[in-house]
Amino acid sequence: MTKTFTILLFVSMTIRMYCQEAKSYQIRTVSFYNVENLFDTHKDTLIFDDDYTPLGKNQWTKERYQAKLNHISKVLSQIGRDVTNNAPDIIGLSEIENRSVLIDLISHPTLRGLEYDIIHFDSPDERGIDVALLFRKTAFLPTSFRSHRLLLTKQDEYRDYTRDQLVVGGLLDGESIYFIVNHWPSRSGGEARSRPNRIAAAKLNKRIIDSIIKQSPDAKIISMGDLNDDPTDYSLKKILKIKTKEEILEPTELYNPMENLHKKGIGSLAYRDRWNLFDQIYFTANLYLAPTPGYKYWKAGIFNPSYLIDKKGKYKGYPLRTYANGNYVGGYSDHFPVYIFLIRPLP
Known about the structure:
About 25% of the residues lie in helices and about 30% in strands. The protein contains seven helices and 18 strands. A six-stranded mixed β-sheet has the order 3-4-2-1-18-15, with helices on one face.
């Protein structure tokens, strides 16, 4: 009788595990892409965009602009598709010039039928590059959006104009969630010299996250962007206090899945034969901790198919960029996109 009970118990457990494994899940893709200077061809007298005009240094013609749209729309349509059979539901973008290029992008034949909409504000960056959020209207309903200014000062005490941080709140399949899109100050002038600017950006990001949590303690928050810092740098580990899985204790603490990728030597851009993972997506731990209902983090990745990789020359193995050493290459971007999957069980 004991043997019979043991066998029945084993069969029961096996069936239950099989049912759990067979359970259906809804998957949503959240991605970020620095598209490397997506400019239109028109001169804007309010910004320094002379290089990206037909007569400018880069000879930025309508043909080159159209080729850029072809490339970026192709990439965006394929991120995560091997898993979801669809394009991303949420896309953070950086290095876009204005709303006009975003309209051209989502109107491209590759993306036109996917019902993307745009949230964008003009930021005071001197080159005129902004951040933006694209979202599929079938998945996400925005309920609030705001642009937060990052105030920086140069050594001569003049204002240093840079990108805003975009905050969008809304309903992802009816569940409340917040997205923050960043493009932190570059390493121009050297990493150490420019570090205070990225620390300031991290402090602004922390204030935004803390403010949301103060109003909504259970808020799920996803922050993404080109941070110009790696996951283990001071701005993320000490200012944002991002933790590893083993260190997380509270749902409001921050977790960055990109840190494990970085430790394995995986990057989203390369400089002087060194890979960096500046493009990151991190989030409040309630998207990771098991008891939390609704959407949860599943896994992260870097989208780097072979067509996005330079096959020859000095930059062999790097992201295939639009310009290299001042010459038109006709590639995609000097960054690879990054993404995470969110999942929730279907009833």
